[in-house]
Amino acid sequence: xxxxxxxxxxxxxxxxxxxxxxxxxxxxxxxxxxxxxxxxxxxxxxxxxxxxxxxxxxxxxxxxxxxxxxxxxxxxxxxxxxxxxxxxxxxxxxxxxxxxxxxxxxxxxxxxxxxxxxxxxxxxxxxxxxxxxxxxxxxxxxxxxxxxxxxxxxxxxxxxxxxxxxxxxxxxxxxxxxxxxxxxxxxxxxxxxxxxxxxxxxxxxxxxxxxxxxxxxxxxxxxxxxxxxxxxxxxxxxxxxxxxxxx
Length: 247
What we know:
The chain is mainly beta. About 5% of the residues lie in helices and about 45% in strands.
């Protein structure tokens, strides 16, 4: 996922993730477990010593949610004015995660939020959200309720559903923000399992004990920034993949 637009952050001191030249580091501010206090980002510029803690983010961690830093930045092309005064702009990603537990199983589902981040020689500031997209999930649903069920399912006593998104640079269209390609992969295990169907009473074969790729929910879209809405938009609607993404 590394290119000149989608820039991978490297490990820094403690929980920090940094640009390769260490001109900018980011980390999630610690939140005491069990509180409903919203999370925030700590932005550090080691080269100048500046440290900025952003205002509370509008995501989690209450109601069973969590927050984590996306370990990449989207580099926004510099205009002539920014080049001359040393300013940089990025899109920083925060993943909000919803978790649910239920009898014999549970799961989590994450959404990626991209927010504007401005860096100047004397200031770091976080701006508005420009993208909110389903990002990843992992679900396990109990499927064995007796010893016979375990035998019939060859020991595979949970139906498992996974979803994973990724972002790469798309062809440059000269917009204010770079165009991006969003890809997803959705799988079910065993191959016969479908969350919207009753999977009980199945007798599995050894060949069923593998992932099944859902071709409808494994898709690709181009994301382009729309100045009229101040947000990224897909080139066409995404399918309903809530069977994979909703815990």
